[in-house]
């Protein structure tokens, strides 16, 4: 019986020794080896690389215990020099471990080609949004006589009309020819005095002119709804698209005694 107890005691002592050794090894691994292997507690702040030429990057990053990795993709910004950094990952100011790779995207050396959108018959405001969405720049705006006010009549690239779908470099400047809303047809201003206001409006629009303000004038001698004044006056030379204002009679209320 005593021999069995002694045997169990020895086994227990050996197990405790094994557990102790195992605990020591774990402590050395997690407290000494692993932190040393992973540079635990040592970090580097990622610098801002935007605008750097790619040839400057490798030495610049190496001096800060970082490595360079140029991504195969590239972007294009027309006002930035070719082969300069457009964006990076991780972002500037990020804390990373030493020897970490910094991925950068460069500005393309040549602008990519894009298809010219159709801007003709498009309002100027919409045309500017379309150009921006396609990575194009709105250039000079030239106004010409046309009844369509602020409507694009022509789109030009380097002084020549450019059709929809034509390939041009991204970032190109597009000049626009736009209508001034007046037109170039000369006509004589019709006489509207004495007309019904509805009839006068039909005549204004039918003549290629634009309906302006309708002003009401109190009167007790002219039938209600009759044009009593117009501006511009009758007989004046007008361009299509010009505005015409009229004054219309409105009967005054009479007070009975």
From TrEMBL:
PASTA domain: residues covered: 41-108, 183-250
Record InterPro entries: PASTA_dom
Transmembrane helix as UniProt keyword: yes
Keyword Phosphoprotein: no
Entry keywords, A to Z: Membrane, Transmembrane, Transmembrane helix
Residues passing through the membrane, by range: 12-34
Name of the protein: PASTA domain-containing protein
